Amino acid sequence: MPRRITLSLWMLALILALMTLLATGFGALRLPVNLLWNGTDEALRQIWFTIRLPRVLLALVIGGSLALAGCVMQGLFRNPLADPGLLGISSGAACAVALWVVLPITLPALLMLYAPMLAAFLGALAATLVIFLLSQQRDSSLSRLLLVGIAINALCGAAVGVLSWVSNDAQLRQLSLWGMGSLGSAQWSTLLAVTSLMIPTVLIIWRLAGALNLLQLGDEEAHYLGVDVSNVQRILLLCSALLVASAVAVSGVIGFIGLVVPHLMRMWLGSDHRAVIPGSVLAGAFLLLIADTIARTVVAPAEMPVGLLTSLLGAPWFLWLIFRRGGEHG
Known about the structure:
It is found in: Cell membrane. This protein is mostly helical. It is about 80% helix and about 0% strand. The chain has helices spanning about 5-25, 35-40, 40-75, 90-100, 110-135, 140-165, 170-180, 190-205, 210-215, 220-225, 230-250, 255-270, 275-295, 305-330.
């Protein structure tokens, strides 16, 4: 990679590290780092270590996962408007998790930790396969993909509505908060579960960055250049579905990060996925960390669902992209 891009990525990583350290001190209760290490209040340290730190780290993992999933989807479909939320992938995962919440099944402790992610993965994978199969048809177009995404979102939304109707009060509150997106349930156990899925998935996608670059030339050209197109597409689809599923299972539906971040990284770093992939992970982590920090502080001691903030940011960006593409083709 060019030196400028490498320096940009290191700069982004440094800014993210500094913001992570600062974010652990903000919330309904201010916890400055110097007070924690110089003071003698053990209760404050326990709050910082068991509540604040896992939440900040979970924001990094979820934000990076959603941005990377969006980066992969945009690369596979060769379109900057591809996004797990817009295409219905997040809704598919949400519907499966809602079914798990309302119809719980007793499993061993370790399986119970991963069961919501498995349910979300199956729902996300089903929606992904529908979108991917449609994109392979000769008469497929962006407008048709978005219409299918709208249909999937509507169908899954109706299913979640039915499940909410038959749920009890505790389940209904859980579904309501979870549908707006929140990191309030962050714990070390959930952080470990999501991270254990994200890290190998990121490494697999990183190894396929070169093949993803060649896919931008078209399937036939990539095949002639030595890419096993169908296998690479299959692996990338599974990886993106797994990233979305693990994020949705833990934090609920947090939209537009997968749309905004990869597009910004392509504008800044270029089209080489060897740079866009790590850039998307870092920038996605940064964006969700900022959004969650604001959500924890702007209405303290109450808390705003972080999914609302990301939607407020992403919806205008999506409209700008549509008008921009319309102007380019007009």
